[in-house]
Amino acid sequence: MTLRRDDALKALIPHVREEDIVVAVYQSCFDWLALYPRDLNYVAVGAMGQASSHGLGLALANPDRRVIVLDGDGSLLMNLGSLVTIASAGVTNLYHFLSANRVYEVNGSHPLPGADTVDFAAMAQAAGYAGFRSIAELDAFEAALPGILAAPGPQFTALEIVAGEPYPRDYAYIHSAEARASFRQALNG
Fold it and tell me: Domain count of the chain?
């Protein structure tokens, strides 16, 4: 069985609490917004590689909320140092999920450098994350989710995925003042 990104995101939805902040980038963002639109979805598209850094800032500023980062492997490669920064910050409320499909998907599916050899979970381990794993099957992800989200962070999960359904890429919304205002109001309300 192959793990599709949209199936993994659908499995995550029942575990997201109302007060949780979800930081999503690029194709994970578009998929997440289509599957689970909510005001506490922080859209970090346009800042390739910055989801983990934005997630860290939100986790530090909101220690009573879980921050769930939905990252892409191409994006994370642009900011690998964030793994060390996150681990060193001591945040216990950050949950980092990486969609690893080994390509820059929204930019034409060009292969990642080292696509066949890079081990993202090992990078998170070496950086000092509290928990780290790589999952390639939906049933394994569904079984692991409650434990991942109950454990103190930072937790890192590399999801070895394939694309799944093509959800609309609504760049106008993710770059809009409306998206920022909805998030800010929900965060501070």
Answer: 1
